[in-house]
Amino acid sequence: MAYVKWGVIAAVLAAFVALLHWSLPQRDIVQIVGTDVKREDVTRGDGEIMSRDVRFINARTEEGRPRVYRNEDTGWGFPFYFKFDTGDLTAEAQSLAKTDQWVAVTHYGWRIPLFSMFPNAVSLREVTGPAASFFPWFNVIFLTVLALALFAIYRRIQRFRRRRIDPVLEDIDESWDEMGDRASGLWQRVRRFFSGR
């Protein structure tokens, strides 16, 4: 039973870490080579098929590997990047594609070719070269605050359990012990009665 418990805990923890990795911002240093717009069909919950245009930013790394980013507004939804400037970002990318400028692309999400998934570009920032690096301040602060909040919730649950749940469980345990003692005493009397002692 302990294996099942720890297996469930590990699965929940892995899913939570994957969600954090998918939704927290990451940066790639690339050169932008162009932009693209593709028409995609999306099936809504009611079964209706809608067509929409999706913008993409095409780039390459220092090693020459391709990087493709989706360029869609996040709006007010999750993850909460509040991105409403897809058109502006496309214009900026098109301008940078005409130069050999290195760019830091801030994005979230994963590239999974099997499912045609692309990370969503959030912002572009010119940098001095491919060796540029940034300390992930937002991620560090966010994860620190999240860890403190989870620890505070854990401590409150522990205190609640000690104050409210543990005394009730002790009372139940004592009641079971008393019932067991009574049943044992009754059994002893019944045995004595039938054995004639």
Q: What features would you describe in this structure?
A:
The protein is α+β, with helices and mostly antiparallel strands and 197 residues long. It has two domains: 25-133, OB fold (Dihydrolipoamide Acetyltransferase, E2P); 135-197. 47% of the residues lie in helices and 26% in strands. The chain has three helices and five strands; from the N terminus they run H-E-E-E-H-E-E-H. The chain has a five-stranded antiparallel beta sheet with strand order 3-2-1-4-5. Strand 1 (26-43) and strand 2 form a beta hairpin. The protein is elongated. The two termini are 46 Å apart. The model has no long low-confidence stretch (mean pLDDT 88).
Mean pLDDT: 88
Low-confidence stretches: none
Order of helices and strands: HEEEHEEH
How many domain modules?
2
Concise description?
The protein folds into 2 domains: 25-133, OB fold (Dihydrolipoamide Acetyltransferase, E2P); 135-197.
Helices and strands, with pairings:
Elements: H1 2-23, E1 26-43, E2 49-60, E3 66-71, H2 86-97, E4 102-108, E5 120-127, H3 137-195
Antiparallel strand pairs: 1-2, 1-4, 2-3, 4-5
Describe this protein with a few key phrases:
OB fold (Dihydrolipoamide Acetyltransferase, E2P), 197 residues, 2 domains, alpha+beta, 3 helices
